[in-house]
Amino acid sequence: MASLIASGTAHVVGVADPGAEARREAARLAPEADVVVGLEELLALEPDGVVIATPSALHAEQAIAILGLGAAVYCQKPLARTGAETRRVLAAARAADRPLGVDLCYRHTDAVGGLRLALAGDGIGRVHSVDLAFHNAYGPDKAWFTQRELSGGGCLVDLGTHLVDLGLWLTASTRAEIVSARVLAGGEPVDPDGSAVEEFATAEIDTDAGVRMRLACSWFLSAGRDCVFECTLYGTTGAVTMGNLDGSFYDFVAERWVGTRTERLSAPGEDWGARGITRWAARVADGTGFDADRARGLELVADVLDRIYDAAR
């Protein structure tokens, strides 16, 4: 919210949160806003758009309610817990003809921008394989993440959503099939229909772009650092890769590999965290309507996650 205010693309008219401490912080950041407890009170203020940052189980119904009143939505990932829920939200956004954004924030890093430029220039030939990893060594910081009824899943939903999105988007894939999948907690298989959620997940995915994606994500893995984030695309004449620096969740670099040579494609240190939300706010201000291409991408990511859990069963 602070970044959105600083960008000048939106004026905060209201903030809703059930927690008193959060409301106090909101009042400090947006002193002119009405600070309320619930969504109904917030919608009574007739905002042009609403940002949803609540537990995952609430996202779909809240988004549908907001869109139903004609306001745009920017939602923390995942947009919903399942493909079926995702399609309900997309139908509501289509009916309202309003912008729907999801905080797939790593798309907006300079490192991913470097990968896209290299791929567009045919700098690595035909991409045939993608390796994706996201490990959070200390795990989620809120208890609801480990409660399936609130989260919809574990590290695969929390972290794997970003990996699946990047892999499909960077390779322009429109269909995917699961080759293998595994979800574990404490080193043991987890029932995707049970109450426990996974702390470790792997999957192999084949796409209609002729690409095999290998994905791994985890909470609490002994990684020797706070975070591991890697996205590497291998082509017939080279490779491009992005990764985080020194265990950071925020500093990334991208490189091109040709044989034994390395070329730097981006530098760390940029402030990228608010790029997604400010671009969404600009679309709301411009009167932009529903984006069918974005919707197809969101639906595909949700369906791939569903199928990974199905394969793990």
Describe the structure.
This protein has 313 residues and is an alpha/beta fold. The protein folds into 2 domains: 120 residues, NAD(P)-binding Rossmann-like Domain (Rossmann fold); 176 residues, Dihydrodipicolinate Reductase, domain 2. The chain contains 10 helices and 14 strands. The strands form 3 sheets. It has a 9-stranded mixed β-sheet, with helices on one face. A 3-stranded parallel β-sheet has the order 3-4-5, sandwiched between helices. Strands 1-2 form a two-stranded parallel ribbon. A hairpin with a 4-residue loop joins strand 9 and strand 10. Helix 5 runs antiparallel to helix 10 and helix 8 crosses helix 10.
Q: State the name of the first-level CATH class of the largest domain.
A: Alpha Beta
Q: Any idea what the CATH architecture of the largest domain is?
A: 2-Layer Sandwich
Order of helices and strands: HEHEHEHEHEHEHHEEEEEEEEHH
Shape: globular
Helix content: 25-40%
Strand adjacency order, main sheet: 8-7-9-10-6-11-12-13-14
SS field, number of helical segments:
10
List how many beta strands DSSP finds: 14
Domain module tally = 2
Per DSSP, what share of the residues sits in E-state strands of 2 or more residues? 25-35%
Class by helix and strand content? alpha/beta
- Give the terminus-to-terminus CA distance: 39 Å
From the 3D structure, determine the CATH topology of the largest domain. Answer: Dihydrodipicolinate Reductase, domain 2
CATH superfamily of the largest domain: Dihydrodipicolinate Reductase, domain 2
Low-confidence stretches: none
Mean pLDDT: 96
Describe the sheet with the most strands: 9 strands, mixed
